[in-house]
Amino acid sequence: MSAWLRGKDKVREKGGPSWSSLAIALDKEGKHHIATNIRNKYCLDIKEVVELTEEFKAPLTPIKLEPTIQKVKPATNYSPTQISEYNDDQQKVILTIRDLVGIVQVLKDSSFQTIKWFDLGLYLGLTYNNLKMIEIMYPRDAEQCLRECLAKWLTDIEATWDKLAIAVSEVGETSVAEYIRAEVSFASAPTMRPTVQPTELDELKGVHVAAINSFLIHGGSTQSVNWEEYGIKITIPQGAVLPSDTVQVTITALVGGDFIFPEDTELVSAVYAINLSKPFLKPVKLEIQHCVSIETSSHCNYLSFATATNNQPPYKFITVDGGEFSIGNRYGSISIAKFSKYCIKTYSGRRYQPYSIPGPSSYHERTHTLSSLLLLPTFPVFEASSMGIISVKNSADKLPNKSYYGQVMYEVRRPGREWLMRFLLSKDLNALIEHIKKTFKFVECIEVSFQFKDDDGFIELYFDYGQCPKGWSVRPHQFPTGVRQIDIDDYGSMSPPRFPKCLITFTVSPGEDTVKELSYPVTMQGIKKSNVEKINIVLTMGDFQQASAGSIASNTGPISSDDERKLAGKVLRENFAALSKILAAPSNLSAVIMSFYAKELISDTTATECMNDCRPVQDRCASLLFAVKATVDGKPQLINTLIEALKENEAFKEIADKMTQSLINP
C-alpha cells in the first residue's frame, strides 16, 4: 500500500494513487461491497479520479482528523444506564499534551488493541512518514508506539474527543468509540474532569528536565505513586481524594538548574517539581531518594528536606521541618499538604559542624534544627552520665559518606584501531543515572558504584604502562587522570548538568608482533566500597591490510586518519549542492531521513526536527546535511555508511556512485 501511495512501479503513469483507482482494484479482487462503500463515501463516479498526496497527508478518510487527548477517567465505573446522553460541547473541547495520560488510560480501559496504533495514527491525520519514524524508534513495542502516536497527534494537530472516537471507529474498534463518547459525556460534570491547570510547572525556566510523568489517583482507598526509576514515591491516604473523584499528579524530575541552597549545604537528591490537578484533602507522605549513607543515628541530623516556591529563577530553597531519615535507608520521608519543588539537602561540612545529637531520627524531635546549627561554631556537648557526672562528648563527628556512580563507555574513533574511553561520574541517584543512560543510550558501558575514602575525596585512574602489550598505546587526556569529589557534588547548580569525566584514548598500530587483543586492567584509587575492584579494558585489533570496495583508501595502501577525515569531508562538501537539490523533493527527504536514522547517521533530535512538516523544506534539508557532515567529521569511516544509505533510494544512486569513485580515486 505504501509503495502504491508513493507512485512506484509506473503507478504515476497510470494516473497516480486515487480513491477511484483503489475502488476499481477492489472490484477486480471481488471486494465489491468495499468498493461501493468507497464510491458512496467520496461521491465518486467510477471514472472519477481523486489523487492522493505523495506525502500521505490525506489518509483514507473523508475528514482530516486531528490529535486528541483524553481527560482523566473518573474513578467510579458507571453502568451504561447512568450515561443517558451525548455531550457535544465536551466532545469539542480541545485536548493538549497534558491529557495524554488520560487518553491512554481510556483506551486501555476500553480494551483498544494497541497493535492498531499505526492505522489509528493515519486516521488521526498523522503522516505515514512520521508514523514510520515512530515504528523505527520503538520496534516491537506497540504500547510505546501508541503513546508516541497520540503525543504527536496532541502536539501537532487540533485534537478533540470526537475526532478520536471517529478514528477508532475507522480502524474497526466501534465498542471503543462508544466507550469514549460515553465516558466523555459523563465527564462533562466539573468534578469528573480533573486536568492539570496552568501553574508554575508550565513556566519553569532555568532548569534541566530529566523526565516527566503523570499518575491518576482515584478516590476511595490508600494509593501510592511509585516512580522509583527516578527516585520518588508518594503515598496518598484514604480520604485524601473523594470516592467519586480523580486527581492527576504530574512530577517533573530535574537534574540541574539555577538553584540556591542555604549556606554550607549541598543537594543530595534530584529536584522534583510536583503539580496536582486539584488539592488533596489530607496531607500525603512524600519520599525522595538521597545519596547519603546513613550508618548511625547521628548521621540523620545532617539531612533535611528543602522546598522552593518561587516561579522564576533563581529558585531559592528553604529548609522544611518534619523530615524523617533512618539508618540504611536511601529514602527520606516527609508529610506535606502543599506541593511545589522539593529535594533533600545535607550539611556540606565546609565551615561548621552540627551538634552531635544521638537519639531520635525524626527531624521535629531533635533538640536543634539543622538550619540553626549551620550558624553556630563547634563546641563540646555536655551529657549527664548515669552516676550524675557531667562528661564531654566531641561534637566533631565524621560526616556521613555519600554514594557515587561511575559509567565507563567506549566510542570507536577508527574501527579496530582507535577508541576513546569516557569515565563519567555523578552522585548515585536513580534520576541522574537514568539521565546519563538516555543521553548515551546507544553505548555499551560498565557501571561502577563507590564511596570516597576522604571527606575531600579524589578518584584517580592508575595505568600500569608496563602491562600494555606490544603495538598498543594508552593516552590519558589529563594528568592526574581523576576527578575531585567537590566537582561531582556541584552537579545541581548546572543546567544542563555537566558531569565530570576522564578521557583516555587507546590506539593500536598494526605490525607483525602486535598483540591482537588488549586486556588491560585500570585501578581506581581514592575510593572504598566499590562494586568493581578494577576496570578491565578489552579491545580487539581490526584487519587493516585490505580495503573493501567503497572504503576510504588510496592506490598505495592504507592512509592516515587525518587523510581519511580530509577526504571524507572533501567528498561530502563537493556533493552538498547536488544532494540539496535532490532532497528538495519532500518524498526524497522523508525517505533518507528514516534511512539515515536507522543507520545511526543522525540523532533522535535531528530526525524529529527534519520530519517536522511545519518547517520549510530547505531548512530541513540544511539541518539534515549539516548533521550528517558533523557525524562524518567525527567518524570519517561513516562516509561509506552514508553512501550505502543513499544507494537504497533510486533518486540518489547516481550521486552515491559518484561519491564512491571519488573515495577510490581521490
Write the layout of secondary structure elements.
Blueprint: H1 2-6, H2 19-28, H3 32-42, H4 88-91, H5 100-109, H6 117-124, H7 128-137, H8 142-156, H9 161-170, H10 174-186, E1 207-218, E2 223-227, E3 232-236, E4 246-257, E5 259-260, E6 265-267, E7 271-276, E8 284-289, E9 303-308, E10 315-316, E11 318-320, E12 331-336, E13 341-347, H11 370-373, E14 381-384, E15 390-393, E16 404-414, E17 418-427, H12 430-439, E18 445-452, E19 458-463, E20 472-476, E21 482-484, H13 485-489, E22 501-508, E23 517-525, E24 527-528, E25 534-540, H14 561-574, H15 576-583, H16 586-598, H17 604-610, H18 617-634, H19 639-647, H20 653-664
Parallel strand pairs: 5-10
Antiparallel strand pairs: 1-4, 2-3, 3-8, 4-7, 6-13, 7-13, 8-12, 9-11, 9-13, 14-15, 16-17, 16-18, 17-22, 18-24, 19-21, 19-23, 20-22, 23-25
Helix pairs in contact: 2-3, 6-8, 6-9, 7-16, 9-10, 14-18, 15-18, 16-18, 17-18, 19-20
